Amino acid sequence: MNADDVARRYWYPAALRHQLDDGPVALTLLGEALVVALMGDEVVAFPDRCGHRGAALSNGEVQQAPDGTACLVCPYHGLHLDAGGRPAHLPARPGSRLARRLGVEPFSATLRDDIVWVSLDSEPVGGLPEWEPHGVPDRLHFQLAPIVWNVGPTRIAENFNDLAHFATVHAGSFGDPTHPIVPEETLLPTDNGFRHWVYMHQLDRVTMDGPAVPIEVEFHYEHVMPFATELRISYAPDRIEWIQVAFSPMTSLDDPEPATMVFQQNVRNFDLDGDVTAWHDFQAAVNEEDRVILESIRPRAIAVDGHGADESALAVDVFTSAYRRAWRTLLDA
Ligand code: FES
Ligand code: FE
Predict the structure, then answer these.
(1) Which ligand is nearest to the CA of 166?
(2) Ligand 1 in contact with 52 (CB < 6 A)?
């Protein structure tokens, strides 16, 4: 199986829940143009191409058909498609027979953690990540606006699970250059990915120019193949932050000019009256440090099936070595 065939089988974030309040959202996933929309209580994902004359459905809007059914309305001739992608109504000829092929074949779509997840497969594998919920008492959270990085999702997943770059790439934010040592990590396989954890130094800091106090914290990662990770940072037993990320491949995994949509939300159980804007902005600044180094990598996509063959591993590459082996296993299955 090639890498794209493997990747098509999994779930990916397509949009944040609140983005659908303004109407359908367009996205590209593994080179396919999709539209996601909220139709009544249901989220749907369709190919972004009307079966009549090919107009982009993402430029349309959700309206009710005369019988009250929520429909996605094509912006060209107004063909109404129901949540199953079936043609339901044409205002220019009400009651006329509408062939099924005028509609579209829906993709798998579901809502979880205020994120719309989609899969290009009718029977996705791997499941959705089980993330710490944020819509509960004693939790504070924010979602970052989805952002495109011009680097492959395998590179981003490896980086998010990498510890050895903290003291260098993040020396201007939370990394502690005076404590560059990465202690031995423990890594275990799970049903759909990896769990790995370590105690490490970082700087306890909430703004880029705020006071920076060196502390030791636990970094605990739950990675779900291929591109979703939750990092639990325990500053103390009762002071925990969860960073939840998932990377949606917009282009083919073999594309030498890759693009990835980066989704992220943070949750914490402390400082519940704190400044969410400062917390959000600090995280965005940290991510920018990562983006700059990742977009400098060549090749920007790891060739997962031969992938990174001319790169060498370090002893600290505990996750990335296991991750690349896992990819090879998926490709060989
Ligand atoms: Fe969509 Fe004609 S192209 S209704
Ligand atoms: Fe980083």
Answers:
(1) 2
(2) yes
**Close Cβ partners of 272 (under 8 Å, ≥ 6 residues apart):** 138, 139, 140
Ligand 1: which residue has its CA nearest to atom 3?
53
pLDDT band at 306 (very low <50, low <70, confident <90, very high): low
pLDDT at 308 over 70: no
Query: Do the beta carbons of residue 73 and residue 55 sit within 8 Å?
Result: no
100 lines ligand 1 (CB under 6 A): no
Q: Which two tokens stand for residue 169?
A: 């790439």
Whole-number Å distance between alpha carbons of 76 and 134 = 40
Q: Find the 63 Cα to ligand 1 centroid distance in Å.
A: 15
Q: How far apart are the first and last CA of the chain?
A: 7
Place of tokens 């920007």: 300
Residue 195 DSSP SS3: strand
Tell the residue nearest (CA) to atom 4 of ligand 1.
77
DSSP string, 116-168: EEEESSSS--S----PPPSSSTT-EEEEPPPEEESS-HHHHHHHHT--TTHHH
User: At 303, is the pLDDT very low, low, confident or very high (cuts 50, 70, 90)?
Assistant: low
Distance CA 229, CA 232 (A): 10
Predicted confidence (pLDDT) per residue in 55-94, tens digit = 999 999 999 999 999 999 999 999 999 999 999 999 999 9
Relative to the CA of 57, which ligand 1 atom is closest?
A: 1
Pair of tokens at residue 268: 């914490």
289 CA → ligand 1 middle, Å: 44
Instruction: Name residue 112's beta-bridge partners.
Output: 115
**Is 79 touching ligand 1 by the criterion CB < 6 Å?**
yes
pTM of the model: 0.96
Q: What angle do CA 267, 270, 271 make, to 5 degrees?
A: 105
CA of 105 to the centre of ligand 1 (A): 16
**What average pLDDT does the structure give for the chain?**
95
